[in-house]
Amino acid sequence: MSRFSARQLFLTITIILLIAGALFVFRKPMTKPAAPVTKPPISQPSTPRSILAEPPDWDALDAFQNTISREEFERLLTTVFTTGQAWKNFIEIGETEASIKTGELPPADIFHLHFATSASQKVPSHWKTAADLPPTTLEKPLADLKITIDPGHIGGAWAKMEERWFVVGDGSPVCEGDMTLQVAKILKPKLEALGATVSLVRDKAEPVTTIRPEALLSVANESKSTASQESPQKLAERLFYRTAEIHARAKLVNESLKPDLVLCLHFNAEAWGDPNKPTLIDHTHLHLLVNGAYSDDEVSLADQRFALLHKLLQRTHQEEIQIGSSIASSFAKATGLPPYQYPPDSLNVRQIPDQPYLWARNLLANRLYHCPTIFMEPYVMNSTIDYARIQAGNYEGLREIGGKMVPSIFREYAEAVTAGLANHYRALRRTN
Q1: pLDDT tier for residue 31 given thresholds of 50, 70 and 90
Q2: How do residues 73-112 score in pLDDT, each as one tens digit?
Q3: SS (H, E, C) the chain
């Protein structure tokens, strides 16, 4: 019995070892191996896109199926939203659909956008045009309208880093971020008095983003071109105030504020050289920007190609032109400023027909905000006349500056925007 047991034990152990060996060879791992890197360094993504941009959600365009005709899609794409022919490398326009190359690997490398038939679907939108708003009175033309004011740049302690700061002798520093915020605080109650619900993207000279330049140094090192003379530190700073900051503002606008209209306030400038000994020039001008005019290089980036199509399908363009032209007219009437002219060979702008003050240009803010967005560039901060008015500050009534009796430049700015919006909505809204 004991001998049989020993043999039985030996056989049992042998079988167990054989089974264990087989399991070792053919087993599936009990724990997942480390996942392969699917998100490559931000400077060299498998699908080319802008630095700090997230991969686009192409499925979001499904909401616009059957909402636009083939003719309208092609017209907007070729005459408003692009300046070259590179779009043909990514978008094929057929009779019933547009086949859009997303840049992702198969099988999801083509997005099919179906064109509208005679029974087209309504364009989905959280923002309202003048025609969408309920009837109002002439005294409250902006009633039921949600407006967000985006005071451009940051200002304060960040102004020098942004390169939106200069000082002349013993004068007060000129700081665009502080000036746009000052205009915003004058403008807000004016619009509210006309019935609008108004929010500010920022109400102090602090960034909206929680990211700081030091957190972007690794991205800057990965992204820096060998041909660039810019240091990684300077690139990290630029990514902070130009890119991460605008992405944070867009998140706030699109996910929380959800306005019908965004007003991006800026002051223009021309090259001033040393900010401690700036060059002042003898001319000033005005222009406003709407989204469009994507260059060939921009169309080749997946995130910008997606944004182009999202803006096109949202139909923000026509609303931006109508509102922008009304504001431009009131600005020109109030200030007498001549229209700014981009160089005729510019590859990233389109002038809006019959609108000398209005241009289409693809900027990060007017690209990312999911509603009509008017980007304003009045005055020239380092022109002799506008500099003198900036130094005069915010005052009531009129003062003589440069031989003319003029209001505060900040109040004039706010009043021109208010008048332009009031004119637009009074003209197009139903009244009680």
Answers
A1: very low
A2: 999 999 999 999 999 999 999 999 999 999 865 655 899 9
A3: CHHHHHHHHHHHHHHHHHHHHHHHHHCCCCCCCCCCCCCCCCCCCCCCCCCCCCCCCHHHHHHHCCCCCHHHHHHHHHHHHECCCHHHHCEEECCCEEEEECCCCCCCCEEEEECCCCCCCCCCCCCCCHHHCCCECCCCCCCCCEEEEEECCCCHHHHHHHCCEECCCCCCCEEHHHHHHHHHHHHHHHHHHCCCEEEECCCCCCCCCCCCHHHHHHHHHHHCCCCCCCCHHHHHHHHHHHHHHHHHHHHHHHHHHCCCEEEEECCECCCCCCCCCCCCECCCCEEEEECCCECHHHHCCHHHHHHHHHHHHHCHHHHHHHHHHHHHHHHHHHHCCCECCCCCCCCCEEECCCCCCEEEECCHHHHHCCCCEEEEEECECCEHHHHHHHHHCCCCCCEEECCEEECCHHHHHHHHHHHHHHHHHHHHCCEC
Q: Which of 358, 272, 280 is nearest to 320 (CA)?
A: 358
Q: Is the pTM of this model over 0.85?
A: yes
Domain 130-428 CATH class label:
alpha beta
Give residue 231's Cα distance to chain centre: 26
Tokens of 235: 């690139």
Rounded-to-integer distance, Cα 304 and Cα 55, Å? 10
Tell me the average pLDDT of the chain: 89
Domain ranges of the chain: 130-428
% of residues, the chain, pLDDT over 90: 82
Confidence label for 17 from pLDDT (cuts 50, 70 and 90): very low
Nearest to 286 by CA among 324, 322, 318: 324
pLDDT higher than threshold 60 for residue 2: no
> Which residue in 164, 175, 125, 40 sits closest to 315, CA to CA?
125
Task: Give tens-digit pLDDT for 193-227.
Answer: 999 999 999 999 999 999 999 999 999 998 876 65
Tokens found for residue 292:
């469009």
Return d(Cα 386, Cα 379) in angstroms, integer.
7
pLDDT score for 427:
96
Triad 288, 294, 297: Cα angle to 5°: 140
- What whole-number distance in Å separates Cα of residue 349 and Cα of residue 342? 8
